[in-house]
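Please review this one.

:::
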Amino acid sequence: MSVSVAENTPSSSSGDPSSHSSQSQSVPSSMDSGGSTAATVPTQDMVDGVMSSDEEEDVSPCGWGRLFPLGPGFQLVELIEDEYMFGRGSMNNCRFDATQFKLNAHYQAFSTKHLKIVRKQNNNNGFDVFITDLSSNGTYVNGEKIGKNKTHVLNHNDEISLSVTKNKAYIFQELGKSQEEVANIPEDFRKKYTLSKLLGRGAFGEVRLAFTKGTCHKFAVKLISKRQFSVSPVSHASIKDEVNILKALNHPCIIEIADVFESPDMLYIVLELVEGGELFDRVVSVKRFEESVAKLLFYQMVVAVEYLHSKGITHRDLKPENILLCSDKNETLLKITDFGVSKMVGEQSLMKTLCGTPSYLAPEVLRSAGLGGYSKAVDCWSLGCMLYICLGGYAPFSDEVEPYDVNKLILAGKYTFPKQHWKCVSDEAIDLIKKLLTVDPSKRLTIQQVLEHPWIKDEEVIEKANRLMYSGKQMPPPTVTNVKKRSSNEKEDEPASKREKTDKCEPDENCAANATSS
């Protein structure tokens, strides 16, 4: 896209009313990088501080800041002048042209004059940056509405949204501060990516937003400090080999690893960005999923884990926080992340860290204190925990449910299905959970056996999952053979009666079927 440029002299006045429009869901960016060098003529001229998306120059000689694009229609803006006006009107020096916002459902809610960004010199011989909301429908900074004709300080890595909080437009970066931040970042990383705002923190470090230089495609970058792991010199030498294995993985339900960079103190893992949120937050939001939705999500988890196991990779840290959703719909594609951490930092270091938060860990991991000696069966236990959470709305092993030590509950395999939470759930689903949450790993279902379980062998759900996973691509042969078809006269294992039990369940405050698929 491009930002149309009008005059060099910014103007200011209040915004014009515009009609509201429906919300849209951002689509995760595909991996891409590159662009022209500084000596190459860009596809569009850089006028009045607006830089084309193909321009790859890292730092403008006279610029003081940048606006990195987040949502559909927005373009990288190089801030050179001290004042900029943004809006649909032709008088703005950064104009939102309708032809560039065809994929943005909120365009009609943008005002003729929507916002103003100004840089002013302060008393300390420095500069402050301010953003003023001139719109009818709102301008937001980090999710907070500024208010019409009100002004807000704009800080490094602030996020700007227009009209609604979900319509993310830009990340603001002050060039001086961004250059200070990258001082210790590997040069190879800096040549290819610009590091931006913090997205979250986890047990193994923080996750930051990043943009490819030249194209502004978005990625997530996981920063892992080596100091918290006892990584041997041999492990350092093998990181490149492990990276090549992980980068070669290709499955629609597995997060793509684009790059890995290494400094003396840190690992930088560049990942496909997925913007629908974590499964954990979605469960908190909807309380519990309808069984058909839970089955759709769980099936995707299972085929993803099956793929990892087929490549000789055990995840070891499957949990709702490591399941990312691709949209705000409940019937959505999902992707598993963090499957390569043990390869990067060493299995023992990883498992010792995880033992501090054991809710989803298999009993054999706790018994060995994270020192190893267990198999891929640990992932099947974790899958059982996640299916329990999706259907019940809470974890099977928790001191909030029962006042016992969580480790003891896991080691004993002690969990229940209270009727007030589980009366809407089919017997087949509960049977699958029980066979996954089996303390003895030799008696626990394998990932292949999970795919053969009657609850999973649901043709309608599998077809829907395949449409999500392979949209626009040639469909692969079904993972599950001899799939059951739903039929009113089907008698095998009495599945019809059990489905009837689920379908006829009347929701109440303790058994809410409130997760919609739209």
